[in-house]
Amino acid sequence: MSNYSTFTDEAASVIAANGPTWGAINPESVARMRLQNRFKTGLDIAKYTAKIMREDMAAYDADSAQYTQSLGCWHGFIGQQKMIAIKKHLGNTKRRYLYLSGWMVAALRSDFGPLPDQSMHEKTSVSGLIEELYTFLRQADARELGGLFRQLDAAREAGDSAKADEVLSQINGFETHVVPIIADIDAGFGNAEATYLLAKQMIEAGACCIQIENQVSDEKQCGHQDGKVTVPHEDFLAKIRAVRYAFMELGVDDGVIVARTDSLGAGLTKQIAVTKEPGDLGDQYNSFLDGDYIESADDIANGDVVVKANGKLLKPKRLPSNLFQFKKGSGVDRVVLDCITSLQNGADLLWIETEKPHVGQIAEMVNRIRETVPNAKLVYNNSPSFNWTLNFRQQVFDAWSEAGKDVSAYDRNNLMSVEYDESELSKEADAKIQAFQKDASREAGIFHHLITLPTYHTAALSTDNLAKGYFGDLGMLAYVEGVQRKEIRQGIACVKHQNMAGSDMGDDHKEYFSGDAALKASGKDNTMNQF
């Protein structure tokens, strides 16, 4: 942050230059307001956070233990409370980001009401949520600094210069709550021009990192659902270029692009790729098509499509949906080609959507990618769509079986059962879950770990617990014991909800504007004084 006294001196010079009509303007109050509003525009934020991400990527390249993390947040308040908690418990925000999940935008932020993750929601709601998240993070800055300013005033009034110097040091060394957001643009919401226009809005709202996937935009499915349809590489690369142009037009030259491939679980394509010569990118894409090689025109029925692939005539299998099918078992090879191609054409990071959290499976693909692009790095979805408990218990079960260890006490298909919770197998599985991010970053090239929709689930769980008790036998005790008492004892800032909503900042401004005539809300009758 800028030096407090420098800001004060600069404001004093401007006020003095404008003569006595500005005499009621307090330069120190101006300095405080400037410090509380460090970022004037979303572009300021995008430029600031892009630099952070680039530095973090370089740090990870040097040491895989320096991986980054985020949680998906569907509202500005959730993102704000997350970053306040991180600063409180961990001391700083280093390598901790926010994730904006297209799934949660669809499910929670659409005017149509809850929608599936199929790009049916208003695309402007994505940029709107980015702006909202940063509005709340900036307000968290203003609130925390406001508290420091009050401490400074109290120290001065008490004549405690040592305390005043200590608080000034905290003000000058203040760490912002503003961190990078990795923002989901789905499949681009249309053609490359539509992708460019939305990317611009997202960047102007503050996004330094945009994640885009290789599905057909009007057939888009959640990465953990069936029926996914991918596009030929050139179509996807055009959208990657569109995002890069948007970044560069707006002066965010180090903006970050995450290229996501859904090919591991996508068995369909809508298009046969354009190819000009054997072995080119289009030909490689078409080589994965399932179909039958034919010898003559007699093998072609009415409406059949035929392409030349691998030096032969191939009649791809066309489904009643008018989609074409890929060969079974080609998913990993398609993922590797997708990833290499994206990195060679402007993407910075990869996202491989998998069907389970398995370090070995991810590492197998990443190692193949790194044969061509040695510094390839992943953003990985630690998805709530995985049954983490069952997956890891089965992984331990299989490892024990392979090692010849006796597993007769366990039913592999029933390992989710509570009866196994205290077992040796389950404890080892939990240890593997705990170490998953560290292990995967070391062994499988994962730079960034995120959970797409954790706060969707935490909101549901906490509301269920409160409703069960409050509307049941516990009544008000359900809230007091389950919420407020815990807030107080854990030091949750929003227990003083008036303060969190900006009441004290409003009082400060009233005093700046009206002096002793200010009618402030924080007097002795404010019930927040109970906390």
From TrEMBL:
Q: How is the cofactor bound?
A: Can also use Mn(2+) ion.
**InterPro entries, alphabetized:** ICL/PEPM (IPR039556), Isocitrate_lyase (IPR006254), Pyrv/PenolPyrv_kinase-like_dom (IPR015813), Pyrv_kinase-like_dom_sf (IPR040442)
Which residues hold substrate?
101-103, 223-224, 260, 413-417, 452
**Catalytic reactions of this protein:** D-threo-isocitrate = glyoxylate + succinate
Keyword Metal-binding carried by entry:
yes
Q: SUPFAM superfamilies in the record, alphabetically? A: Phosphoenolpyruvate/pyruvate domain
UniProt keyword terms in alphabetical order: Lyase, Magnesium, Metal-binding
Listed cofactors: Mg(2+)
What molecular function does GO assign, one term? isocitrate lyase activity
Which residues are catalytic? Answer: 222
Q: Which Gene3D superfamilies match?
A: Phosphoenolpyruvate-binding domains
The cross-references to Pfam families, in alphabetical order and at most eight, read:
ICL
Identify the residues that bind Mg(2+): 184
Q: Which GO terms describe its biological process?
A: carboxylic acid metabolic process
What domain of life? Bacteria
Q: Does the keyword GTP-binding apply?
A: no
**Alphabetical list of PANTHER family matching this protein:** BIFUNCTIONAL GLYOXYLATE CYCLE PROTEIN, ISOCITRATE LYASE/MALATE SYNTHASE
Listed name of the protein: Isocitrate lyase
